[in-house]
Amino acid sequence: MREPGSPRLAWALTGSGHYLRECLDLIGQRPDVDLFLSRAASEVLAMYGHDPRRLRERIVCYRDTTASAPPVGLFYRGRYRRLVVAPATSNTVAKMVWGISDTLVTNIYAQAGKCRVPSIVFACDTEPAMETEAPGGRVMVYPRRIDLENVDRLGSFEHTTVVKRFDELLAALEQAGE
Ligand SMILES: Cc1cc2nc3c(=O)[nH]c(=O)nc-3n(C[C@H](O)[C@H](O)[C@H](O)COP(=O)(O)O)c2cc1C
Description:
Blueprint: E1 8-13, H1 20-28, E2 33-37, H2 39-47, H3 52-58, E3 61-63, H4 73-76, E4 80-88, H5 90-97, H6 104-114, E5 119-123, E6 130-134, E7 137-141, H7 145-154, E8 160-163, H8 166-175
Helix pairs in contact: 5-6, 5-7
Bound molecules: flavin mononucleotide.
Residues 14-18, 38, 40-41, 44, 47, 89-92, 103, 105, 124-125, 132, 135 line the site of flavin mononucleotide.
């Protein structure tokens, strides 16, 4: 792991409970992460018992409060060597696949690509039937064909590594020297 300073790791959280705690644990172990929260992520964090304000005390945290996503400028100034989007909702994955950048997270993914900064995306909806973490406990979820197809489509994008399981996320980070 590199020393704190530049370039850093940009980590985007979206509004998903799937492996949210595990991702937060990873983020908490690192001194080199800046966080980017979708509007849904800010809400969902609280639903899973995490206090976004306490997170902001420890970590540089950009929230989705503007239309033009000014923090994307940081990618052009070389602040980040890599973007991690984990966990990534099917909503954010769909927007990425269709080139839409109308949220903070989809904007930084698009701008990372335009700056040739590589991204790792941990998609949530990856199997036709899967168990996931709801605020009240484990539930079954049955992702639709469109959700699964979008994950596969995103896997063919330039500067993008898509992972479908948490252990694959760990392996991709390690392989990338993170
Ligand atoms: C408690 C809770 C858990 C959620 N978990 C997921 C999830 O695992 N996967 C998913 O695709 N959407 C999930 N959602 C729905 C997203 O938050 C919703 O689609 C939101 O619009 C996504 O916005 P974003 O992609 O900008 O973060 C969840 C919503 C709630 C309230």
